[in-house]
Amino acid sequence: MYQVGHATARALLRRLAVEQAECRVPSLTAAIVRDGRTAWFGGRGRVGGAPPTAATQYRIGSITKSMVAVVVLRLRDEGALDLTDPLDKHLPGTPLGHLTIAQLLSHTAGLTAEPPTAWWERTPGIGAADLIARLGPAELKHRPGRRFHYSNLGFALLGELVARLRGTTWLDALHAEVLGPLGMNATTPRPRAPHATGYAVHPWADVVLAEPEHDADAMGPAGQLWSTPGDLARWAAFLGGDTGGVLSPASLAEMREPAQVDDGDAWTGGFGLGLQLARTGGRRLAGHSGSMPGFLATVWAEPAEGVGVLFMANTTSGLSGTLLTDLLDILEEYEPRLPGEWQPAAADPALLALTGLWHWGPKPYALRLLPGRGLSLEPVGGGGRASRFVPQDDGTWLGLDGYYAGETLKVAAGHLDLNTFIFTREPYDPGAPVPGGVTDWHA
C-alpha cells in the first residue's frame, strides 16, 4: 500500500495541527487517498480524552446527499426512471410534481432551501407523509431550471422517491446498494462508539456547548449520516473512479459534469448530479461538504490525478476553508506523481492512415489515434472545437466530449463527415462534397 514519506507526513500533520489550534476545533481528522487507498491520516484534539482515529465517528451532514444521489443514478441505469421524468411520475401527490429528477439532483428545481418545519437540523424530524402534506406553492422560489438554489427539501423528496421505487426505506436501500458493497460499514444513521460529540465553540472564549442530535426522519436524506475517516476515505476513492461495481464509470462521470454554477462569473464552484464541484489551483474537484450542529466535514476527489482528500471535525463553524487544498498542495510539492511511462502500442493500419492533418474549411485540425482505438480531433495550435471519439459497431464514431459530444463522425473516401461538417485533407478539397461548392483559390 502506498504511504507518504516521513517528510510529507510531517508537513501534512503540521498543517492539520495549525488548523486545529488556530481555529479552536475540539477534534479534527483528515486523510489523503491516492490510487484508491489511504496514503495518510492525521488526527488532532481529543475525543473522550484520546486522540481521534480513523475509526472515530463524526456527523457528515450533506455528504449524505451525494450517497443518496448514487441510488437515484442506479435506478436510472436500471430503467426504473429517467432523469427528465417529472417527480409526479414516481412520487404523486405533491404540489411540486412538475419538477424533474435531474433538477432536484442538481439543485436547479427552484425549491426553497429548507422545509416548512421548525429548524430541521436542531429538532426531531417528521414523517414523509406529514412533510409532503405541508408543501405548497410557497416552496417554489424560482422558475425551475433558471438558477442554482441549494435545497435540503429537494433531497428529502429524492429520498422518498427512492423509498417508493425500492419498496423499503431510503436508508435500507443505501446500505444494501452502496454502503455495504463499498465496505462502508461504519457509516450509520445514529452515532456509535467511538464517536465525537458535536460542539459549538464560543466566539470570544475557549469554552464549548454541546449541540443536539436526533433522527431527522423525512429530512434524513439531506444530512442524517455519521461516518468515520476510514469510511469517508473509501467514499473519496469511489468519487475518484474506484466504484467497486456500485455504479458504472460513465454514470459517475455524468454525476461529476457541471449542471450549474453557484458563484456566477467566477465559476470556481458548481453542482453536478448530487455532487459539488470546484475549480481551484488548476484542479477540478468533485465531492461534497457537510455541516450539522456541532460538525463539519468535506470530501473531495480529483479524478484526473487519482487523489482524494477529506476532513471531519466536531465544531459548528470556524474552519479556514483552505485546509483540504493546502493538504493537496503539500502532497504535490513533496511527492508529485510521476507520469506513466510511454510505450509504443499496436495500431490498426486503417486507423493509422487516418491520422494527421485535416481541414475544416481553411482551418487545420490534427487527428490522432488514442489507446483503445479512440480518435482525437483538435485544432492545430489548440483551442476551438476539440473532441474525442470512440468507434461504434456500425463503423461510425461517437463524440465523447467537447463541442461534438454525442455527435457522429463518418469516415468516407477522402473526407470526414462530422455531423454535416466536411473535413478534407487539403483546405476545401474540390474532390470532396463540400456544401456550397468550391472554386479556385486566387489573389
UniProtKB/TrEMBL annotation:
Keywords: Hydrolase. SUPFAM superfamilies: beta-lactamase/transpeptidase-like. Residues 348-425 form the DUF7586 domain. InterPro entries: AmpC-like (IPR050491), Beta-lactam-related (IPR001466), Beta-lactam/transpept-like (IPR012338), DUF7586 (IPR056008). The keyword Cytoplasm does not apply. Residues 20-318 form the Beta-lactamase-related domain. It comes from the Bacteria. The keyword Hydrolase applies. Its EC number is 3.-.-.-. Transmembrane segments: none annotated. GO terms for molecular function: hydrolase activity. This is Serine hydrolase domain-containing protein.
